Amino acid sequence: MPRFNVEAVQARLPDRQIDWFDSIDSTMIEARRNLQPGRIVGAEEQTAGIGRHGRKWISPAGEGLYVSLVLPAVLTAKPVPVMMLALGLAARDAMAGGDLRWPNDVLLNEKKCAGVLAQLEGDKIIAGIGINVSQAKFPDDLETPATSLLLEGVRVAREVLLVALVNAVDHYCQLPPEETLRQFADASSYVSGKRVRVESGLEGVTCGLDPAGFLQVREDNGTVTTILAGGVRTV
Ligand code: BT5
């Protein structure tokens, strides 16, 4: 995999500050050091890539797109869960399709190909996006099966992916929250009618998003629960 061509991306995004690293602990940690709105922090590899709730994001050198975007405050006057959904929609667009597993995974062929994070820092949100581009295999101990664009037959340069991603993030983060929810529900097979198990152990059938972007699950006894944290799995 050739080294990332930062200049090519900078030429397409002339107004953005792009800081690219050969190797870094996590682009999320670096992004926090300078919260210049619009700043893009990326790396060839992450040695301590971060998922949600202290989980890890596997980030081998040159095989994925690992970026953190400092979102301007104007884009972020929305609840963080809604921002997460907007970022998922943006990643899916940049990848030219896929299913969305609430709250933050882009699936290809029912396997996780991308994950997103939204971290609030003062009045800014740092968006963390990881897209698997050319990995040929993954560790066996992941919580759910993983895939890469290459494994699904999609060949795309990381530079092209990043430009598409940044433009898509700008677009989706500007949508009114109710429009984000509507588009997420349209794009995701997980929002309604899917039998899932939540990390807490609760099991039922999904029945829509609440206005803040949280998933609702109806248990077999009829009780509807709003899922505030944790992911869901099909059962
Ligand atoms: C996420 O967390 O899916 C958010 C991942 C965000 C990563 C980006 S990369 C750029 C930026 N800098 C960072 O340090 N992070 C962000 P979560 O839903 O918690 O999923 C994490 C779980 O997915 C792990 O516990 C593994 O089971 C699995 N996993 C780890 N690496 C993976 C990979 N490369 N592909 C698919 N699944 C993975």
Helicity level, as a percent range? 10-25%
SS-based class: alpha+beta
Ligand names: biotinyl-5-AMP
Instruction: Give the overall shape, derived from the CA principal axes.
Output: globular
Count of alpha and pi helical runs:
5
Low-confidence stretches: none
**Alpha-carbon distance between the two ends:** 37 Å
Question: How can the largest sheet be summarized?
Answer: 7 strands, mixed
Rg calculated over all Cα atoms: 17 Å
Strand content: 25-35%
Main sheet strand line-up:
1-2-3-7-6-5-4
The average pLDDT value, as a whole number, equals 95
Number of DSSP-assigned strands:
12
Q: Helices and strands, in N-to-C order?
A: HEHEEHEEEEHHEEEEE
Question: Your description of this structure?
Answer:
The protein has 235 residues and is α+β, with helices and mostly antiparallel strands. It contains 5 helices and 12 strands. It has helices at 6-12, 27-33, 80-94, 158-173, 177-187, and strands at residues 18-24, 40-46, 64-71, 99-101, 105-108, 111-121, 124-132, 192-198, 203-209, 215-218, 224-227, 232-234. The strands form 2 sheets. The chain has a 7-stranded mixed β-sheet, with helices on both faces. Strand 9 (203-209) and strand 10 (215-218) form a beta hairpin. Helix 3 packs across helix 5. The longest helix is centred in the C-terminal third of the chain and has 16 residues, at 158-173. The chain is globular. The chain starts with 5 loop residues before the first helix and ends with a strand. The mean pLDDT is 95.
